Amino acid sequence: MGRFRWFVLGSAASVAAYWLVRYLRPEHSPLVLKQAVVIITGASAGIGRAYALAFARRGARVVLAARRADLLEAVRAEIATYAADVLCVPTDVNDDAQLERLVRTTLERYGRIDILINNAGVVMQGMLHNHDPQRVRAMVNTNLAAAINLTRLCLPSMLAQRSGTILNISSVGGAVPNATTPAYTATKAGLNAFSSALRRQLEGTGVRVVTVLPAYTDTDMLSPVIQDYVRNLGFTVDTPYYVAEHTIDALLKGEQEIWFGGFTTRAVAWLERHVPFLSTLLQRWLITPEVIAMMEEPLVAQKADPQGAQQ
Ligand SMILES: NC(=O)c1ccc[n+]([C@@H]2O[C@H](COP(=O)([O-])OP(=O)(O)OC[C@H]3O[C@@H](n4cnc5c(N)ncnc54)[C@H](OP(=O)(O)O)[C@@H]3O)[C@@H](O)[C@H]2O)c1
């Protein structure tokens, strides 16, 4: 038999073996949410707040972290109607000492960490040359370096208990580079790569790493003007509650990459992966200078009113 045939047969056998192993592999130990200790960064608003409510409703003990202490207390009050055990630790994830305090306080109170949700995030949209360099550094740190460092701090206790779940809240934008958000896209693509590499490093330790890729979601991060624009293009805008509920369903099923977005988002992601030049053409057609200017508007407003800035 010629070499080519051996090559084809060998490849087919490898693919078959791979699928067989995937199909037969033992199920991971089931995730128990009741009494689980869940740290959520960015829990004061949007998707993080929705995670806090969804996990607490299932009996988890949630640890809420974000900068705005008054909003954390408001989330605690919402949760109090059905779960009493909530810890608020006002935290700026860009401050290493505050990250250490968050982990220390959690361990002192509960003695363990079962789930870490790296959710805190900020966005910068528009032309890169208009970005403020300090805000770029802060964004890279918030979205990527802080998530890596907080994971690093939580890992020793997870490894010691031989169980744990790290949920990195990335974005579909990290897999489909978007011309309106090059710097933000870089942070989310970095988070995707971090998750994949760490998952390989932690194989066999009992610690799972899960990447969540929300699509357009109705939070403060997405201005009403942009929401209208993307809806008109046929994209769906999810609610944060849907993101939280679907994440938990997918987690319980053992998924390691949890994607969001309706048919249009999935079609765009498919195009990006399999026919990237068409994806480029599509963005050239859809993302005009007027669209980019519209994306910059919230940034201009934040510059005029730095107190109101989210970053
Ligand atoms: N909304 C979307 O369309 C969308 C799409 C894809 C992915 N995502 C991702 O989903 C995650 C949550 O975003 P969201 O939509 O819920 O936005 P959001 O409503 O603006 O909430 C962002 C959260 O991050 C926190 N945060 C920001 N900087 C922080 C810092 N330095 N330290 C601690 N906390 C900080 C904020 O709390 P404080 O201001 O109180 O600190 C807030 O709770 C982000 O990672 C985002 O990239 C969102």
Automatic annotation (TrEMBL):
UniProt domain Ketoreductase: residue ranges: 36-219
InterPro entries in UniProt: KR_dom, NAD(P)-bd_dom_sf, Sc_DH/Rdtase_CS, SDR_fam
Pfam families linked: adh_short
Highest taxon above the source species: Bacteria
Cell inner membrane keyword on record: no
Cellular component aspect of the GO annotation: membrane
GO molecular function: oxidoreductase activity
Keyword Electron transport tagged: no
Keywords: Oxidoreductase
Family to which this protein belongs: Belongs to the short-chain dehydrogenases/reductases (SDR) family.
Protein name: Oxidoreductase
Source organism of this protein record: Candidatus Thermofonsia Clade 1 bacterium
